[in-house]
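Case study 2.
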Amino acid sequence: MKKVSNLTKRVTAALGAAVLTLGLVVSNNVISANVAQAAQTVNAEISYTAQYDGSFQGIGINTEVSSDTAENMGYADSVAIESGVSFLDVWVKIHQDMYPEFNASNKDSYFAIADSSYGVTITNAFAKGGTACSYYKNGAMSYGLSDTVQNGDAVDVFYYQDTTGYSDSYTFFKDVSTDEGYVSGKLVRYELDETWTPVETPVAGVDMGWIDVDSLDLQNANPYGMSSLKTKDDGSFAIEIPNSSNSYMLTVYDGNVNSTPLVRTLYNGVHSAANVDTKPLSLQQKQDIYEATGKYLADNNKSISYGDNKEGYLLGLGRANYPVDSSLYSGYYDSVKKYLADNNGRFDSVTECAKVVAALNAIGYDPTNIDGIDITKQLDDVNDVSGVYANAYALIALDTKNYSSSARESCLNNLLSAQLDSGAWGWNNTSPDTDTTGMVLAALAPYYNNRADVTAAVNNALDYLSDVQMSDGTFTSGLNENSNTTAMVVLGLSELGINADSDDRFVKNGVSAVDALCAFYVDGGGFGWTDNYDVNDLASYQSYYALVSYYRHINGMNRLFDMTPEKNADTANADTENAETKKVPAVPKTGDKLFSI
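Prediction:
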């Protein structure tokens, strides 16, 4: 693999990158636009940058890619050889450059693809395993391996640094120009709006640095090396070019000149505060938010069928016993019956089965007898349970009605063994994730007080959650404070019997986790994700059932996921002596059925 060198007085600025040198002069030089064809084969000359493990594996590599590259290695390319060079061809070519030993017989160990619901996707890249990678062409995301490249295209392929939250954002330099030894421009990133259309937003307050193209050494962007240079509010910057004859590229980094540089096109950096004003709320304010959200969910979901991925709505509304038309629940039940009849009485996975078990129990149906089919038996399939979430969902479902199962101990032990040194759990078993930790705590709740190993694990997780709670009371997963993550913490605490509104460990600057969650409420109903003005469906139902769990707890009722006969429905929880709390009529008695089966 040959790096592009001797880039003196040249800038390649293809939305994804800025290669800058002493006396930089912007150039629009691109590789020749000629497309060579041999027989039916099409060739394209491109440049690419490959990045992973927080470092540059190659910068601006010029290469020619043939449209039969993937096919010659044994990959099934959906783009015909005569139709052009696909991104699959590009990925294979990059791996050929990077790994001389990469060949048709061992290819999947370095780069692998597979069919998915999203089409053909990458399942292993850079011999790292996993799917946390992406690829851009000329600064814009490529939406599939069937996308094609042309002569002169600049390609970025990379493995996410944040493989837990996928919070890396594609960031590039715009309007780059030079003047008397200075380079100026703007740093912007792509984000997706509500219609999943990429939009540009400025990246403010971010450290920048220079990276030597040949040595890949990083140095401070500040001309005097005194402190980090940061972009302004509009993403703009103006900095002095290094006083050296070497070739340099401007990059984003973490402020430590001795660290591995961050990936050129990825912004891994600065925490983004939620766009809400958190503050202590009265019990009445929180109750009003809770009740309005129930109304919003009921009013906007008149029909739910299996396959809509709306079991969370049913869980919240059912466990709150919110008054809905019985056809909402019976319609869902009928759709489950039809699915089972069409699919040999089984779901695609134990996780799907577990969600349905919880939802049916929440709305008053018996999952052990659906036209003679006991779907809880699928929860016994321990060989089909892989990963933290799968084990958590299965355990939760089993414990909704204390179903007898040989899988319970396996799920429980799998969760305990998956706990990280930090005390948290991660959905990928490697990086701590707050959402995952909240869900696991909900799954472990029935065992918290009667198993020493669970008690110890939960207490460690509680310490972790208290430590990572933000100063405004919210929680973050990845870069953003958001309602979903905050809701999962409120859920986990409430299921454990911990008051998320008053426990000192989860109150920061007078704002509790429940206060913080309610700050995302959108006036008129529903919850936003990172703000309180755009209703987000997932945020709304997760926030709602988290509040259901909270209100069930403070009213002395069964946990959200404990759907056995109510033990103490008429007694307010003894954890508070506030008379106002006892007035909260948030959760009716479980025994009050809306309809009979």
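The two ends are 68 Å apart (CA to CA).
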